[in-house]
Amino acid sequence: MRSCNRKKGKGVNCPYSMVVGWGEGWIMDKLCRLHRKMEAKAIDALIVTGSENRRYLSGFTGSAGTLVITETAASLLTDFRYVEQAALEAPDFEIKRYDEPVAAIREALLENKCRRVGFEGDLVTYEQYAKWQKAIEQVEWVAVSGLVEELRMIKEPEEIAEIEKAAAIADAAWSELLPKMVPGASERELALELEFLMRRKGATGLAFDIILAAGPNAALPHAKPGDRLLSRGDLVVMDFGARQGGYCSDMTRTVVIGKACQQTRNLYDIVLKAQLAALDAVAPGKTGQEVDAVARQIITEAGYGEQFGHGLGHGVGLAVHEEPRLSPKGDKVLQPGMVVTVEPGIYVPGFGGVRIEDLVLVTEDGHRVLTHSSKELLELGADQA
User: Which of 152, 180, 196 is the last residue of a domain?
Assistant: First the structure.
């Protein structure tokens, strides 16, 4: 197995730096930080099966594989389909082919004399846990959560670059979609067109299923595009993101078809005011709860507190929803390198909704907005009869 040789430095004090094998690099840094978390949990091995966590730690992008990380070694277990790919993508791991994954995990743990083994308690099914427990009785199984996810919260420059590319793709696609948003176009057609535009501009896929909701449907925060045809006076909420290099973007814009009525303008102005104030509040040292409260107070004082029923935002990375959370319960402190969304909204049943969302990088001296599309209320086709 590959063994940790990460030298102390760059703020990382790896407790396994005296073991020969691993070299320097981003993957090594992550593994050494993970080892410290494992030590704090008193586990001498960690089984990683979650796809985003597996990719983050190893670089492996295949759909089948298990990481076995011990105090002094790291293995990637996979099947025949991915052996060659794994060797290319995860050179810092020993690649082991398996025919039966539980047997391969057992061999790796016993080979390294592991006694207390952690697994992702929030990701592993009870059925899978029962199989491991029955087949590998020699170890004590410990459910842990958040070990890798906590590492993923702070993005490295390479990760931020991919997120920025994904955000730029979404920005460009939205700009090209606007002329197609005319009365008579359906939600479903426009969502399909938006996906096509993002893919044509280089997205490897969608970050999540597109939300594109018009008229009364816009009052549903997670509405699915349907057969409704856009009509004059409709508010249209579009929430979407691209996936690039494994990383996600996330943005929301709201437009109106034709001229906006006074109620539409009022709702939009309140949400925009809340969004801009919350953006200004994003800075290292703030908790997610504190930033959420800035937007929530503005919307509540305007009389729409009950119509803002979701959190202000969330972390974005390999997954489109990850820590930290900007919400009334968001207790994590923002740190430089975190990427979060800021997305207040107001939803009025029977009328429609407004949501405005930007992707934001927390920096040493504040923040940098990664979404560059205009937030002016666009009245599409207002000058047409």
Answer: 152
